Amino acid sequence: MAVAGAMVMSGGVLLLLLAFTCAAYNDAGELPPISRRSFPKGFIFGTSSSSYQFEGAAAKGGRGPSIWDTFTHQYPGMLTINGQK
């Protein structure tokens, strides 16, 4: 029981130390606000996502292989990952 109490106390001290450290770095300087005028004229904002990025493994949760899964397995040499084929 004493060990558990000491662990909780040391965890609390570490959490407090982390909070003070974050607060000190937060006050170190502010970044200028980002506005539409911060970007060149004609700049177009956009977002996208891909099922391959977030759906998970093809054999899990009832998901079957997608077109991309099939392509990457049939033609592994067609991909460049981190600058290497």
Automatic annotation (TrEMBL):
Q: Which Pfam families match?
A: Glyco_hydro_1
Single GO term (MF): beta-D-fucosidase activity
SUPFAM superfamilies documented for this protein: (Trans)glycosidases (SSF51445)
**Which positions carry the signal peptide feature in this UniProt record?**
1-23
| Record key words, sorted | Glycoprotein, Hydrolase, Signal
Name the PROSITE patterns for this protein: GLYCOSYL_HYDROL_F1_2
Q: Which terms under GO biological process does the entry name? A: carbohydrate metabolic process
Family from the record: Belongs to the glycosyl hydrolase 1 family.
Q: What is this protein called?
A: Os04g0474500 protein
